[in-house]
């Protein structure tokens, strides 16, 4: 494999949700392996606590004021994004461009491109059973652009096999696809767990289904805490923590005995992985992604049945032996999703694309000589 010290990578990202966490972890690991990595943000500027996630790394950070694609379905910002990113590529001269959103894959890049699909509006709508609005002209254009992006990228990646199958069924891409599980650095789960049930998610995002946990929370023996942006009416019976910095989230997970995700839609679920790595017992909605990633290491429930969730949590709070066994199983399963493994898979994919480019260039030179 080509030494990573010779590799220049330009990676786009945004600062909303798990994409930032994923990008910081992968970019830092790639840089630690010797690659020269530049992280380019779109959407809101990174907060100070988010910038601290890159502290003590060799990752270069460039922030732009370009719109996020899902906030710009009419495409008003596309031409500006094309101009800004073309200028960055000309300045940085990367060997590989790693894209964490769809729109940019349709631009005219000189370097080979890897497009990572973290989620998409169509698969979100299907999972939430709310698809009528996708017939609006602006969302039809969004669908066309996503399909074009998948076709134009030299390789595209999904973080789970379940989501890969969803993307293939919806868009039927012609380019090469791959599954690379997300990964995190190993955690030390040592420390005394507290009698706390913890969850995290954007309250305004229907797919996170936090209301199912709120409905299950009353009369549980243990307190229920939920972290995430707050912009809606809040149910009683839950401690709403608001949005927490990544280090504060890690501290909460270290102490929480149980982690719950009632999600209707989750292409991977980094928060679940971080909870498992912190030694939390996992209680997860019975959706295909979670079955793929956490079978044998979690308890599953129907996300539409808050009473079933209440019963599951009550039994887990009362049963120390079963809870301890589940915590251990989750931690051991989390080791499968290591950052080292994820980084190696991406480096292998980058090398394959670069080798293909070199082969094509050599073949072209032979044809010219002939």
UniProtKB/TrEMBL annotation:
Any Pfam family hit: Glycos_transf_1
InterPro entries: Glyco_trans_1 (IPR001296), Glyco_trans_4-like_N (IPR028098)
Keywords: Transferase
CDD domains assigned to the protein according to its UniProt record, in alphabetical order: GT4_PimA-like
Glycosyltransferase subfamily 4-like N-terminal domain sequence ranges: 16-185
Molecular function terms from GO: glycosyltransferase activity
Glycosyl transferase family domain location: 232-332
Name the record gives this protein: Glycosyl transferase family protein
Species of provenance: Bradyrhizobium vignae
């Amino acid at each position: 494999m080509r030494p990573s010290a010779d590799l220049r990578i330009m990676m786009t990202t945004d600062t909303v949700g798990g994409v930032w966490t994923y990008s910081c972890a992968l970019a830092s690991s790639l840089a630690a392996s010797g690659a020269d990595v530049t992280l380019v943000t779109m959407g809101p500027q990174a907060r100070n606590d988010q910038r601290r996630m890159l502290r003590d790394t060799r990752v270069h950070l460039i922030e732009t004021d370009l719109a996020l694609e899902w906030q710009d379905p009419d495409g008003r910002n596309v031409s500006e994004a094309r101009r800004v990113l073309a200028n960055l590529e000309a300045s940085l001269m990367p060997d590989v461009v790693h894209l964490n959103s769809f729109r940019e894959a349709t631009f005219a890049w000189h370097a080979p491109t890897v497009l990572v699909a973290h989620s998409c509006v169509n698969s979100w709508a299907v999972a939430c059973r709310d698809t009528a609005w996708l017939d609006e002209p602006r969302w039809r254009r969004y669908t066309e652009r996503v399909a074009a992006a998948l076709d134009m990228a030299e390789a595209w990646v999904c973080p789970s096999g379940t989501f890969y199958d969803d993307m293939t069924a919806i868009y039927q891409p012609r380019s090469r696809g791959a599954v690379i599980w997300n990964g995190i650095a190993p955690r030390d789960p040592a420390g005394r767990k507290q009698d706390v049930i913890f969850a995290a998610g954007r309250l305004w995002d229907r797919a996170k289904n936090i209301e199912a946990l709120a409905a299950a929370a009353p009369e549980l023996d243990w307190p229920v805490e939920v972290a995430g942006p707050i912009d809606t009416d809040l149910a009683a019976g839950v401690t709403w923590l608001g949005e927490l910095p990544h280090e504060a989230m890690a501290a909460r997970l270290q102490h929480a005995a149980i982690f719950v995700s009632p999600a209707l839609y989750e292409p991977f679920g980094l928060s679940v992985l971080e909870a498992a790595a912190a030694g939390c017992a996992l209680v997860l909605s019975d959706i295909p992604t979670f079955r793929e990633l956490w079978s044998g290491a979690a308890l599953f429930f129907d996300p539409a049945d808050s009473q079933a969730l209440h019963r599951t949590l009550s039994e887990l709070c009362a049963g120390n032996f079963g809870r301890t066994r589940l915590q251990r199983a989750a931690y051991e399963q989390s080791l499968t999703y290591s950052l080292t493994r994820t980084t190696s898979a991406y480096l292998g994919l980058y090398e394959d694309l670069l080798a293909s480019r070199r082969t094509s260039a050599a073949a072209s030179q032979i044809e010219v000589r002939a």
